[in-house]
Design a protein that fits this description.
The chain has about 100 residues and is of the alpha+beta class. It has two helices and six strands. About 20% of the residues lie in helices and about 40% in strands. Strands 1-6-5-2-3-4 form a six-stranded mixed β-sheet. It comes from Clostridium beijerinckii (Clostridium MP).
Length: about 100
């Protein structure tokens, strides 16, 4: 699940989410793999909070939720974004929730 070979990002997600954050999200999924069973749907939320970006990472089954703070100077987002990373056995896709 979530193999590193075939990972894709939708055009809209690529335009809105800085590459550094995309790589961070893929890395968070990779680091979670040995710790718990991964759900096929990983959910990320990016929220602006003063001069920081709050990133939430969660999945439903088994339940998992973690929150991180990123310095805004390291990355910029213009508004809150909800992202789905979906595993489809042969490939994984990062898309905006609004595209689903």
């Amino acid at each position: 699940m979530f193999k590193q070979e075939n990972r894709y990002v939708s055009r809209q997600a690529n335009e809105l989410i800085p590459v550094g954050i995309q790589l961070l999200m893929w890395n968070m999924i990779d680091e979670l793999k040995p710790k718990i069973e991964l759900d096929y749907l990983q959910i990320f939320r990016l929220k602006k909070n003063n001069h920081k970006v709050i990133m939430e990472h969660e999945q439903e089954v088994p339940a998992y939720k973690e929150q991180y703070e990123l310095q805004e100077d390291a990355t910029t987002i213009e508004h809150d974004i909800k992202i789905y990373v979906i595993d489809s056995v042969d490939y994984s896709t990062m898309i905006l929730a609004s595209e689903y």
